[in-house]
Amino acid sequence: MLVLAIDTALDACAAAILDTQAGAVVASETQTMRRGHAEAIMPIVGRVMGDGGVEFADLDRIAVTVGPGSFTGLRVGIAAARGIALAARRPAVGLSTFAAYAAPYFAGGQSRTVAVAIDARHDHCYLQIFAADGSTLVTPQFASVDEVARAAGKGSVLVVGSAAALVGAAWPTGWPPPTIEAQDAPNITWVAHLGAAAEPGRAPPKPFYLRRPDARDQAGARLPRR
After folding, report:
1. How much is the pLDDT for 217?
2. Are 169 and 69 in contact (CB under 8 A)?
């Protein structure tokens, strides 16, 4: 199976091609950026396809991170994945950013609680906490950094994600310190691997929001219809 993976959810714009038969990523590219995903993603996909010697018709599946993350970034990546899937007549699957962050640690056989903390700005985070066996301890939620630090618990905890350092700084005094793995975005390789394992019918490429956008329609300023 050839899987094209796309990630524009956070502060990176990335694409990769995974060949599951060979068990390897044949091409990938990641650019760190906070803005400009819309202009960057398709040129990156084009270069990755060229580097891998893969045509769109060769693909078996397109995988994309669906959030939580930047509202604009999510829309860019999902639109790109859907467009490619439509043109290539292949299924597209959506993967949570939480799962993409956590996957390499569980694949490595670690035995700690994994708290994925994604920066939601204004001293808040998106949070999901996984037990050592990969099951969910705390379901996805939007909370303050202090609340996230306390929710992660007192045991052996690994905090990973774009807000990992913020959570570490807010860790309650006297608790055993967590292991901090600060990353601006998940590794695109794991988005590809999760995409290969996903069931297309159960993983739609739809945005996964945990809060409303900061920018909203100004309903009170609308002119009345005639």
Report:
1. 46
2. no
Q: Which residues of 181-195 are buried (b: 16+ CB within 10 A; e: fewer)?
A: bbbebbbbbbbbbbb
User: Which pair of structure tokens corresponds to residue 183?
Assistant: 């990353």
Q: Give the phi and the psi of residue 132 in degrees, each rounded to 5.
A: -60, -25
pLDDT(216) > 50:
no
DSSP secondary structure, 91-144, as one string: -EEEEEHHHHHHHHHHHTT--SEEEEEEE-STTEEEEEEE-TTS-EEEEEEEEE
d(CA 95, CA 85): 15
Pick 52 or 156 by higher pLDDT: 52
Residue 216 gets the label, from left (phi > 0), alpha (psi -120 to 50) or beta, of beta
Cβ atoms of 78 and 69 closer than 8 Å = no
* C-alpha closest to that of 138 among 121, 111, 115, 154: 115
- pLDDT grade, residue 152 (50/70/90)? confident
Q: Tell me the domains of the chain and their CATH numbers.
A: 2-97+186-202 (3.30.420.40), 98-182 (3.30.420)
**Cα 148 to Cα 42, 143, 193, distances in angstroms:** 35, 6, 28
